[in-house]
Amino acid sequence: MLMQHVDGENKGKIVLFALSTCGWCKKTRMLLEDVGAEYDYVYLDLLQGDEKQEVIQQVEKWNPQLSFPTMVINDKETIVGFNEDKVREILG
């Protein structure tokens, strides 16, 4: 899977599933950078074929509605949509 990495402070394993055209996804990325967190992200809409299907299956495990952004923290906590308060609460 073509994950992009953004350097920052290690605040756990953070994976952001997003769409390149989504304003809320962009705001979520800006928020992660504001709190200084290291994270990986993938833009689902830029993928094709098997790779796209693989990412869709991953997102559906955490967010059956398949809405974006979907952020997974330490493979156990999910934040769906733009939720600044929850992100700041979890990541400081």
UniProtKB/TrEMBL annotation:
It holds the Pfam family Glutaredoxin. It comes from the Archaea. PROSITE patterns: GLUTAREDOXIN_2, GST_NTER. SUPFAM superfamilies: Thioredoxin-like. This is Glutaredoxin family protein. Residues 12-92 form the GST N-terminal domain. InterPro entries: Glutaredoxin (IPR002109), Glutathione_S-Trfase_N (IPR004045), Thioredoxin-like_sf (IPR036249).
